[in-house]
Design brief:
Residues 52-83 are annotated as: Disordered. By secondary structure, the chain is an all-alpha fold. The chain has one domain (2-72). The protein is 80% helix and 0% strand. It has 2 helices and no strands.
């Protein structure tokens, strides 16, 4: 979807030089701006997903570290597994 948006934006930008009427130019500018906004939204969603994934990994690592610490300190007899 991202490459499709880039292609659409490039196409619209190229078309801006070809149109003849002010109305056509305005319409294309609006469509071009919309494509750019959609690209930015996609980038933000991807960045948010990446941050969420990193946070989940951090929490899992902390949980594993706590389980190992508990096992080593004798707080639990259950040996942690990291499957």
């Amino acid at each position: 979807a991202s490459t499709e948006r880039v292609k659409n934006a490039e196409f619209l930008r190229a078309r801006l030089n070809e149109v003849t009427t002010p109305q056509q130019k305005e319409d294309l500018q609006l469509r071009y701006q919309q494509e750019l906004i959609e690209q930015q939204n996609q980038q933000m969603r991807l960045a948010n997903m990446q941050m969420l994934q990193q946070q989940q990994e951090k929490m899992e690592n902390e949980k594993r570290a706590q389980a190992f610490s508990d096992y080593m300190n004798g707080k639990t007899s259950v040996r942690p597994s990291y499957d």
